[in-house]
Amino acid sequence: MILVTGATGLVGSHLLVRLLQQNEEVKALFRSEKQIEKVKNVFAFHNQTILFDKIHWVKGDITDIPSLEIAFKNITHVYHCAAMISFEPSDEEKLRKTNIEGTANVVNCCIDFGVKKLCHVSSIAALGDPKEHETNITEEIEWNPEEIHSDYAITKYGAEMEVWRGHQEGLKVIIVNPGVIFGFGFPHQGSDVLIQLIKKGLLFYTNGNIGIIAVQDVTSCMLELMKSEVSGERFTLVGENITLKDLFEYIARLLQVKPPSYQASELTTTFAWRLDWLISKIISKKRKITRATAKASHSRTTYDTSKIIHTLQYSFLKKEAYFDKIIEN
């Protein structure tokens, strides 16, 4: 039997559809009944509503060990999709609790219950830091703790360290590092926030690059890697490296709205994150832009996907193959 953590999230819900289409028996970890309704919508989107009732739902939390122990009974394979995504500095403790401690709990249960293989969903945010002369990020580039990283990136990197610990203790593992994931079913969350900003009339763009990927590609790679003999490896999953300007203009065309027309310089974004910090302190409001996100918005690096392409002979979808369906729904 297969266990999916984070089953009510974007990757987890689309993964459930794929697993059940392959006649797998699946347990899905959830925290709130309200979120299950979103999963049902994802199944409807794929015209697979009939498969929804085959899910074995287990209420629990990766930070709650007793509930995990119940979920792990009779489990042979685990897809660990659960994580907290936030770029708000005040969420640092919650990020560490969920992403690092939660992953450590999952790894420990995998070892204790004799799980055959674990797939951990990480992020490109946890990949290494290229040196000054490097513009291409591969799985082999080393993490530099002296560089500026968001708390999210730091905790996803810390989560990977827990997975590698499990591998050293004999657990078969793979790690996938997806870019910004786009897919149906989670309005006003994750990547859809970007779509909504453009829909509302976002004015500014920066000169940086972004790595994007369809949720279909993420789940396909996860499934193929778990069925393979590959273990102890991580894989960058980016369907397309694109400038923020080009991505914003493409989304705006699909939405039939005016694209952002003003380029924000590094000086402008530096001023913006400092001002945002001051305002957040005065009125106790969550941050919209931080030092780390401002820096990332100007990055011109690209993500190298040759490893996953060579390993699986895989071809990624281009944005034209899936974005219109997301926008329409």
Number of domains: 1
SSE run? EHEHHEHEHEEHEEHEEHEEHEHHEHH
Judged by helices, strands and strand pairing, the structural class is alpha/beta
Low-confidence stretches: none
> Would you report the number of β strands?
14
Strand content: 15-25%
Q: Helix fraction?
A: 40-55%
Name of the CATH superfamily? NAD(P)-binding Rossmann-like Domain
**Average residue-wise pLDDT:** 90
CATH topology call: Rossmann fold
Organism: Flavobacterium cucumis
Pfam family, one: Epimerase
GO cellular component, one term: cytoplasm
GO molecular function, one term: aldehyde dehydrogenase (NAD+) activity
Give a verbal description of the structure.
GO terms for molecular function: aldehyde dehydrogenase (NAD+) activity. It comes from Flavobacterium cucumis. Pfam families: Epimerase. By secondary structure, this protein is of the alpha/beta class. It has a single domain, classed as NAD(P)-binding Rossmann-like Domain (Rossmann fold, 3-Layer(aba) Sandwich). Helix content is 44%, strand content 16%. The chain is built from 13 helices and 14 strands. A 7-stranded parallel beta sheet has the order 3-2-1-4-5-7-11, sandwiched between helices. Strands 8-10-12 form a 3-stranded mixed beta sheet. The protein has a two-stranded parallel ribbon with strand order 6-14. Strand 4, helix 5 and strand 5 form a beta-alpha-beta unit. Helix 5 runs parallel beside helix 6. The protein is globular, with a radius of gyration of 20 Å. The model has no long low-confidence stretch (mean pLDDT 90).
